[in-house]
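Exercise: predict the structure of this protein bound to pyridoxal-5'-phosphate.
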Amino acid sequence: MEEHDCASYDEAIEELRRREYPMLQGTTYLDHAGTTLYAKSLIERFSKDMISNLYGNPHSASNSSQLTTRRVEDIRLRLLRLFNADPEEFDIIFVANATAGIKLVVEAFRDQENGFWYGYHRDAHTSLVGVRETAAQHRCFASDADVHQWIEESANEDELPGLFAYPAQSNMNGRRLPLDWSRRIRHTKQGAMYTLLDAAALVSTSPLDLGEWEHAPDFTVLSLYKMFGFPDLGALVVRKASTSIFDKRRYFGGGTVEMVVCLKEQWHAKKLDTLHERLEDGTLPIHSIIALDAAMSVHQELFGSLKRISKHTTTLAAKLYEGICSLRHRNGLGVCHVYKDPASTYGDSTNQGPIIAFNLRNHLGGWVSNAEVEKLAAVKNFQLRTGGLCNPGGVASSLGLAPWEMKENFSAGQRCGNDNDIFRAKPTGMIRVSLGAMSTLEDVTSFVDFLREFFVQESVPIESPPVMCPLDEPPTRSLLHVESLSIYPVKSCAAFSVPPGKAWEVRREGLAWDREWCLVHQGTGAALSQKRYPRMALIRPSIDLDEGVLRIQLVGSLRDTTSTHEIAVPLSADPRMFSTEDIYKEANAKVCGESIQAKTYRSTDISSFFTQALGVACHLARFPAVGSGTSSRASPRHSKAHLQKYQKAGSMHIPGAFPDACSLTPGAVISKPILLSNESPILTISRSSLNRLNELIKAEGGKAAQAEVFRANIVVAESLDYPPGAEQPYAEDHWRYLQIGQQYFEMLGACRRCQMVCVDQHTAERNQEPFVTLSKTRRFDGRVYFGEHTCHLPMDDTWSPLVQNPTITVGDPVRAFREEDAGQDMRLGALVS
Ligand SMILES: *Cc1c(COP(=O)(O)O)cnc(C)c1O
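Solution:
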């Protein structure tokens, strides 16, 4: 075939498509990667063959049986030739699909004396990943560079026979991987190292040449239905030089043995002639194999060679890629985020196949739900695929999903195909469009037009106020800022300071990871608190998002109590880590006398670590209930915080002087979900209030209080350039709303204090201060208050990335609003109206 003339070829394809694929009428078919699309002539030819010939079960002397055997052997040969594979050097085993071919190879490796080592590339299809469960040792290669490095290390780590598997083309984004790895591995690796090439995705739009048999993979698997649409058949191509690995395969099925002795003796003789005779267990799918003959003929007549299909689809994919990338919202933001390997190029068939994986973004930069895209596509008759695409490694690395996030998404109810496909501002899947031999330029343009019509924001919508734009600056001339952010991952234990610069997620229940865990008494099930166990202050948890663990360190005098000073617990709420006892039973942990649904960790290492540290028999528990399979994180506890009378507008607030019998109605109880914190999702304190308090304490010769004793999450401070001496301690009593960075918060009322604030957070010693001074200066209605209960106000506009992933950061400017000022800010006004 000479130069590929796209336009005239395309015209020919259009004509052919009308004739051969009537079922495509009215559909834009963009799911060729999983195609089952067959030509009309193929079915007609096959049916004619079936009607005019009698095909018997092989392995008997009848004419019909002989006919079947002859046809099957011819077709085997024809299929080998399609891949330029010399029948002297290769054999073909017919299997149900590519996965069955993989399993056949794996069965042989699993039956090796000490098992086998298994390596697989990140881009592998799920069916290749699953092999690891049968291997003695396994490794996932995160990049091509890792593979290259491993190939160079010529030594074969251990004595085990090894199998290295990878896809010739990623079924996720169509990236084509180097085909010379088999040769290189055979050259440099000593010992028994085999290669398995998964060509299921590649061969539907590309030739595969096994002509240089010395360099070919030992095993190659194919999905024939992905090439021809029909029959539903797969094939395993084996290099004859590598067949000895099958000698140890233990299972035998009908048709693969010469003789079997049962009863008193157990003995069998395997067939020895050809590999396919030894491996094709049971009756062959003879009618499918016969259909394959028709499929190869018709395919060639309609499309010519695989090389021609490759050229056509490569050209179309480059156009599709270009069209998708050119889509921009009116404000300039790109619409499609394409998951392309940086090293591959659309238009270059050596490294890129005709598949594009991407996600859509709205004009604010937020992700568009794939479930929504799929619904619209269905209405408009576009056939495409969305979700995890059976490519766990490729999808996770493209989407930047850490294992703990995937497990947490799983625990939160996310499944392949769910409607709920955006978790904490990250998509959990992608959209895949793939082209095939019968794709046309019109498919490409109509898909790009579809995206433009429904997903490109051409005009700035009037209903959304201009401040909603993410390019909008947060308040700059603010007099307040966030001095620090702290969370208390384990209730009543030490704080974890959010590192400066780290955008920290704000959830409905408070700052991310705040009080997700607690320690519960083994006898009573009650959650332990510093009030009774002050040394809990010396248990220091930290959140390591990179490693996906909660790290717990013992500090100070607690280091003398145990030999282990640190443990790590996975952040993922993997149901297997928890004691099954309370999965069905009403959970027994109690916080502030209320029952909570916490799950205790079953690990005795974890329990004894805490038990030894505190000298009280306890378990680590996690909240909320996990693994329930529902998409909502049921949170049975609700905030009881409310505005105190002294905070009401118009009230005087002279410390200690407010009359007990007050005519003002008490604040309404506000119901907000919380985790294990005592009263509300978030606690905010003011630096200048703390400074004022400490001045008074020091004036009396007492010891200044640290911010941590108040268990604050957010410390708001006046900015450095604030006029000295003009601080406003306790101004927070009158704040009703806060804007922190781009997020809004509501103040729920002052926080009542107890003697727990007297535990020194660095030494775990009990003091009198700051409670004594607080009682003298911050007592209202006989109760002592310091700090403000706070909750996040989620914005209504679910399109905005600020809503999909609300975060705040140390240093964020803060604006405080009194009740009467709320209307000054358009967004806040809209939120609270
Ligand atoms: C489709 C596909 C598979 C699985 O093929 P089956 O025929 O469904 O077993 C494996 N790997 C890749 C790359 C694929 O595209």
